[in-house]
Specification:
Oligomer: single chain
Largest sheet: 6 strands, mixed
Number of helices: 16
Strand order of the largest sheet: 3-2-1-4-5-6
Distance between the termini: 50 Å
Shape: flat
Number of domains: 3
Structural class: alpha/beta
Order of helices and strands: HHHHEHEEHEHEHEHHEEHHEHEHHH
Amino acid sequence: MKRSHQLVRYIVSDILTAELSYTLFFIFRKLYIEPQKFGYQIPVEFDSNFVRGLIILPFFWLLVYYLSDYYRDVFRKSRLQELGQTLLSTLVGVTIVFFAIILDDTVHDYTNYYQSYLAFLVVHFVPTYLARVTITSRTRKLITQGKLSFSTLIIGANLPAEELFFSMTAQGSATGNRFAGYVTVNGKNGISLEKYLPHLGHFDDILPIIRQHKIEEVIIAIDPSEQEKINRILNHLHLTDVRIRAIPSLTDLLSGKVRFTTLYDMPLLEITHSPMPTWQMNIKELMDIVISLLVLVVLSPLCLLIAILIKITSPGPVFYSHERIGRHGKPFKIIKFRTMVPDAEKNGPELSSRNDPRITPIGRFLRRTRLDEIPNFINVLRGEMSLVGPRPERQYYIDQIVQRAPYYVHLHRVKPGITSLGQVKFGYAENVDQMIRRLQYDLLYIENMSLALDIKILLYTIGTIIRQKGI
């Protein structure tokens, strides 16, 4: 079963139940609330207001569900988790709609407000939850029957790893984990799992192993006290999209970090990839799309003018496209307005400097105002970049940086950005030494990611553009 198919099931279900709940609420108001307000029975007519609501409200609800992170893990939901998520998002959504639309009505008795609110809450929650729990129950049944499973890799081959393996396999197919094998961290790590699982290699080869065996979940089964090893493991795993779980320490259990989603679950600590809270990350992604669309539409006349000036003042193409390394180490083609002469790197990769003779006159202005980066918003819409994040580099320079600063790979945990804390605080780097110095600011950003910090960086960048303080 493909994730995209499962996601479509939930989205279609949410759209249909949103339209159903709105229709039921509309009829309820016509038959019960409005007769109390006007003193006579009003016929139910599905007028233009009803049609507008029927079109707009489903999109509103999808936005609420997206921001609540409902669509992130479409296979591993429980009925109890379904109940909590649906109830919370319904409370938030109904409250917003109530204050935005219904509260404007003229009423003689505030009881009508309470009745309308509760009615909307009930008619939206009940069908939405029933539809969702039907899909979730069907998925849960496929998992327990062994028809749906997740390719799982164990890291470690010591006693904790064996205990974990036996505990999970004792549940049969109920956990949904299909063990592809294990990898060792240091040699055989004591007691070996070779009698039960294939030994797929050493941890140093974890990334190709994950790709080759299409691993969907990794369980770190080494002693929680070996924090240095765990950190080294996470440095590699954060470059992937796999689900990461680990054997918890007593502190993790007492602090409430370990959660069960079903009775079949093992008490494992789930480790998230994102350094930013999920709801903030969803808002960040929404901002990326909305702002990028607005910028490209509003600045399209300026882009046309820039394109004409580039063609008039310098031979060669309008745009410059080159490979950069993005999130999880995946390459992509970055798009910019060309600011250098053609064949500027005919002798190999070379970073630009403030007085670089390869920069064209119009290119110098574009760099100073950062207008050359407007096409980057296309990369944002493609999902390759974000508005704010570490600037992407070429593999040629990454190889040099990693030799001296191995922690550079942390930057690949997030999408690269059009602007960054490193660019704001340090500026453009003219050599590898400066890249490494700028790296400190980008690492600081990742460890402190928040919407507030993103907004500060965006505002500072706008100021830089106005003051023409780019390179």
